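Hypothesis: this fold can be encoded by more than one sequence.
Test: take the structure tokens below, design a sequence, compare later.
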């Protein structure tokens, strides 16, 4: 895992957007896994800026969103589909035929989940998966106890997630209790993973998932089993890590790896 600690939310967003933009420049038909929530809003804003100012081209990429609330229609204001259009898709030149967000109001979520997995396979798998992390340690809606082998499916939301997400709804009762979510197994098949986190409220869970033992009780710890994970944090989210000095040294001296090989 590569840990990049940045001074604040703005720098976290700029750093992560740069990483994503570089991957798109490297492979114009990149398959991008996308996340929702407060955390990636700044990253999407930066990507829109790069698109407008530097002409970053999204026309050939495909995208797959991690999750969606069961029961919400795509145009519902609280749906993740709506969030993605509002914060990202409508501002860039992505081809909407290549955009996939789980359909919250499907009649058959199980069948839909199988179909979603097939679409990911059909395009050759996800090249770069963007992730946030929940207060309970979830990635996508893989709540505590989710199998590390899990695939896209319906998952019941954990109490803390319902409380955390109630800020977007007018009452706690309105927060959906279920979501369609990619599984941990699905996420681990992405070729590269970029997790972003900011704020003091994420400090404990960030320290646990990077430096703690692997456990299905904090599903983000599954990322320790992946070969190419980059974590971009702001100072507050990184504040409970114990090896920050080491991470910073590696960040600033990466170029020396190439020099020392073959010595
Ligand atoms: P947040 O959500 O970005 O709104 O904190 C993250 C998550 O639940 O994955």
């Amino acid at each position: 895992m590569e840990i990049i600690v940045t001074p604040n939310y703005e720098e976290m967003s700029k750093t992560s957007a740069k990483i994503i933009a570089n991957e798109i420049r490297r492979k114009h038909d990149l398959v991008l896994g996308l996340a929702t929530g407060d955390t990636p809003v700044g990253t999407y804003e930066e990507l829109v800026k790069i698109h407008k100012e530097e002409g970053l081209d999204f026309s050939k990429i495909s995208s797959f969103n991690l999750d969606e609330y069961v029961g919400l229609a795509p145009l519902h204001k609280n749906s993740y589909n709506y969030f993605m259009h509002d914060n990202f898709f409508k501002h860039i030149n992505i081809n909407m035929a290549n955009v996939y967000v789980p359909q919250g109001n499907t009649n058959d979520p199980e069948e839909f989940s199988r179909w979603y997995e097939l679409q990911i396979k059909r395009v050759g798998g996800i090249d770069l998966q963007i992730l946030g992390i929940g207060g309970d340690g979830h990635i996508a809606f893989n709540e505590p106890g989710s199998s590390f082998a899990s695939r896209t499916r319906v998952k019941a939301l954990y109490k803390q997630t319902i409380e955390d997400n109630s800020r977007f709804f007018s009452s706690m009762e309105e927060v959906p209790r279920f979501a369609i979510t990619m599984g941990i197994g699905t996420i681990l098949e992405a070729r590269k993973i970029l997790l972003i986190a900011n704020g003091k409220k994420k400090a404990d869970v960030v320290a646990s998932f990077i430096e703690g033992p692997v456990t299905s009780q904090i599903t983000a710890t599954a990322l320790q089993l992946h070969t190419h994970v980059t974590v971009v944090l702001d100072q507050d989210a990184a504040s409970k890590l114990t090896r920050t000095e080491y991470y910073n040294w590696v960040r600033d001296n990466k170029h020396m790896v190439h020099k020392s090989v073959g010595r």
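Strands lie at 2-6, 31-34, 62-65, 67-69, 99-100, 128-131, 153-156, 178-181, 192-197, 229-234. The CA atoms of residues 169 and 231 lie 29 Å apart.
Hypothesis status: open.
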